[in-house]
Amino acid sequence: MYFSCKSIFRAIGLGVMITGLIGDIDLNAQDTEAAINTGRLHVMAGANTVSAYHLRGLIFEDDGVILQPWAVASFNVYQGSEGDRVKGVNINLMGWGSIHEKRTTAKNSPEKFYENDYFAGVQFVLDGGWMLEGGVHTICWPSGTRDAATELYGKFNYDDSGLWEAWGVEIEGFNGLQPWGMLSIEVDNTFMGIPGKRKSGFVDLGITPGFTLSDSKSMPMRLNLPVTIGFGLRDYYGTNDSSFGFAKLGVSTDMPLTMLPKSYGNWQVNAGVDFVLIGDSPRSYNDGHDSFKPIGVIGFAMSY
Questions:
Q1: Which of 3.40.1080.10, 2.30.30.100, 2.40.160.40, 2.40.50.40 is the CATH number of 12-303?
Q2: d(CA 290, CA 2)
Q3: pLDDT digits (tens, 9 = 90+) for 218-266
Q4: What distance in Å separates the CA atoms of residue 294 and residue 51, rounded to the nearest whole number?
Q5: Closest CA to 152 of 169, 167, 138, 132
């Protein structure tokens, strides 16, 4: 079974756009011996509590409780055979939300439901460790902050772990740099919501290395060190200043809940902090925030 949602649903602080949404979570690699769901439909869900909601250099809220739940359904529509260039094709559907204790520029009810995002994409799992995906992303603001916007996105992921093994680099639990990139193009309204602003796009580039901290069967734990940079295209922020959006270094740990029966799926908890360097253009919208912002996150996730 060639199944993976990791390639698009990694936050992405919205974080993909997709990449930042749900953090550095890997629930796809079900242990062959312990796997319960061997079918073609897989589901994932979880929630993060964050100290601030950051996306593309913009700090939307950093006060009060911020809860960001999400859910994913992945349908495997094609499985390749040994030697095939295309190993699998998946259709991925995702919903994500940001619910705030504060009103956060709400104009109508529900005041606490700040944002709701929907994704639909087709993912190709290729030979050699490559994944390609394309789809549509719609951003809604239920509290009336701005009009809904729609983007088309394309993304790649490359599993470079085999290269490090071939080069003789042996680090306990090291999974390679895992480079990825994503291009988002606005097609209906704009994310910034500036009247009269022309449509633009955004580029995210990153790596997602991880290491084993503990391989104990009762309490396994991994350290993740994702790095992401983001750039706006063609006057993305509505200014003529630099297109640099942000740079982010994440330090997080995740721990599978091995005490739960596998028949209930794979569960894990995660905690960490993102250190975000914000560009001049988005900082002008951040209500006086500094160019550097640490953001704490704690959450859980499951897959089945």
A1: 2.40.160.40
A2: 43
A3: 889 999 999 999 999 988 888 766 789 999 999 999 999 999 888 899 9
A4: 9
A5: 138
Tokens linked to 48: 């993060």
Question: Distance between CA atoms of 47 and 68, rounded to whole angstroms?
Answer: 5
Separation CA 106–CA 282 (nearest Å):
20
Task: Pick the closest to residue 269 from 24, 21, 64 (CA basis).
Answer: 24
Residue with tokens 């084993």: 212
Average pLDDT of span 123-128: 94
Place of tokens 């209906």: 188
The region, left, alpha or beta by phi > 0 then psi within -120 to 50, assigned to residue 281 is alpha
What is the residue extent of each domain of the chain? 12-303
User: What pLDDT digit, counting tens, does each position of 186-206 carry?
Assistant: 998 887 766 667 888 999 999
CA dist list (Å): 275 to 62, 65, 179, 228:
14, 19, 19, 10
The two tokens of residue 189 are 């309204």
Beta strands in 62-112 (DSSP E): 66-79, 86-100
